[in-house]
Amino acid sequence: MRSRACTSPIPWRPAVISNASDIRSGTRPEWEPDSVNEVAECVLAAARDDLPLNITGAGTAQSWGGDVEASVSLAMKKLNSVLRYEPADMTIQVGAGMAVADLQSVVAEYGQRLAIDAARIDRGATVGGVVATADQGPAQLAFGGPRDLMIGAGLIFADGSIARSGGHVIKNVAGYDLARMMSGSLGSLAILTDVTFRLHPVATATGTLSREVGIDQAAADAQAIGDAGLEPVAAEWISGQLLVRFEGTQTGCQERLQAAARLIGADAVTLAADDAACVWKRHRDVSRPGANGNVPATIVRGLVRPSDVSALSKAADRIGRETEAIVTVAAGVSTGRVDMRIESTSALAHARTVAKWRQEVETLGGAMVLRDRPRTLTGLVDAWGTPPSAVEVLRAIKSAYDPGDVFGRGRFYPWF
């Protein structure tokens, strides 16, 4: 289905923009459509006047990847309704502009949750934004990422066409891959208008086991716990501390905490609820953007094989000493995700640390994404590094879905 074209000024925001020449003179307006058809009209207008769009939700991931060369920001925040919720089926369809925290509040009334715990959620991250960035926190170990939890999506392509992929029933896999392809695309292929997720029950009890160990021992401990069939929902290491989280019934959770402690050592302790909340907040703060007082921060995420997490984490510590930057690492010891926070008053120290760590990531066959950096790093840091072997496939997909480069122009530069 194709929506009708619109003419400037945009009818629902008459004061935003009068014509394309106003944009090119330096103004960068924000369009706020409040329906799927209006989103499609915006896309058609942008394509017609060659106005590249920057798709935004809450704006919590605008610094990810390369700088977007956009004339207009297209804000999805008004598409924030619950479109369909079936508590008995544990599925929900919501507008892409809905905050994940608001979704959680809706389903919590039925003892359910969306098993996504990305650090950005408490800053208002939207459903569309979390999917587009493929962002996930420690819960990835048990529940996978956003692409594993989504079962359908509404999409608008660069020609204004509106499409659906997947469905509302979990077993319906028709068109499923198209929706999943949007995960991690950073808004560069199409616009997500709504997403359908499968949900999980809220756990009756949760508990965190902590042990002060180096990264090598932390990886070995996590492996032993997993091999023993104790099924932790998270296993993370942050600056000398292993954190293993369990969920379930009160009895089942306690039994697994005790079994894990017996398995990995007498110095492993179960944290009190307040202490657990504190250490998990410290974990989230590693990837929280923004300066630490007057000290700017750069945040990068490395994705490697779980067996290489130890090597990459130790490399971060070594590189920090070499560049005289303060480096903090939070690593998913069983998932292969390593977040590194770099703090220094020297832009050159930031740039050197990123470059050295990217080299380590690529040597291990992994990938790195630049998630946040101070403006002083502009021109000093390449957002993406060496193109992957499949870069021609990525370029072909981009060309097929967005030949005019309307969406997210520059986000994946120089890959495409």
From TrEMBL:
<dbReference type="GO" id="GO:0071949">
    <property type="term" value="F:FAD binding"/>
</dbReference>
<dbReference type="InterPro" id="IPR006094">
    <property type="entry name" value="Oxid_FAD_bind_N"/>
</dbReference>
<keyword id="KW-0274">FAD</keyword>
<feature type="domain" description="FAD-binding PCMH-type">
    <location>
        <begin position="23"/>
        <end position="202"/>
    </location>
</feature>
<dbReference type="InterPro" id="IPR016164">
    <property type="entry name" value="FAD-linked_Oxase-like_C"/>
</dbReference>
<dbReference type="InterPro" id="IPR036318">
    <property type="entry name" value="FAD-bd_PCMH-like_sf"/>
</dbReference>
<keyword id="KW-0614">Plasmid</keyword>
<keyword id="KW-0285">Flavoprotein</keyword>
<protein>
    <recommendedName>
        <fullName>FAD-binding PCMH-type domain-containing protein</fullName>
    </recommendedName>
</protein>
<dbReference type="InterPro" id="IPR016166">
    <property type="entry name" value="FAD-bd_PCMH"/>
</dbReference>
<dbReference type="InterPro" id="IPR016169">
    <property type="entry name" value="FAD-bd_PCMH_sub2"/>
</dbReference>
<dbReference type="Pfam" id="PF01565">
    <property type="entry name" value="FAD_binding_4"/>
</dbReference>
<dbReference type="GO" id="GO:0003824">
    <property type="term" value="F:catalytic activity"/>
</dbReference>
